[in-house]
């Protein structure tokens, strides 16, 4: 059974390009910063900008880190932005056909 698990490949879909960034933040951290700002009189009537540069990473870097963690490479399927738009339009058309209310007199 161990050989089957080793041969099994994980698959991942990558939408758009490879240069997109993601921000990884814990809700607890954002909540903690928000409470600190809310209780600090120096920030009264001010604009707060959360800058967390260490938490910003590209999707390909995130996938690479995950591959190192699980100890195997993943099969990557790239879906272009144009194809993604085409798929979303097709889904919207299919949903609108199914969800059109019938007019009952």
From TrEMBL:
InterPro entries given in the database record: NAD(P)-bd_dom_sf (IPR036291), NmrA-like (IPR008030), NmrA-type/Isoflavone_red_sf (IPR050608)
Residue span(s) of domain NmrA-like: 25-94
SUPFAM superfamilies attached to this UniProt entry: NAD(P)-binding Rossmann-fold domains
Listed Pfam families: NmrA
Name used for this protein in its record: NmrA-like domain-containing protein
Record organism: Apium graveolens (Celery)
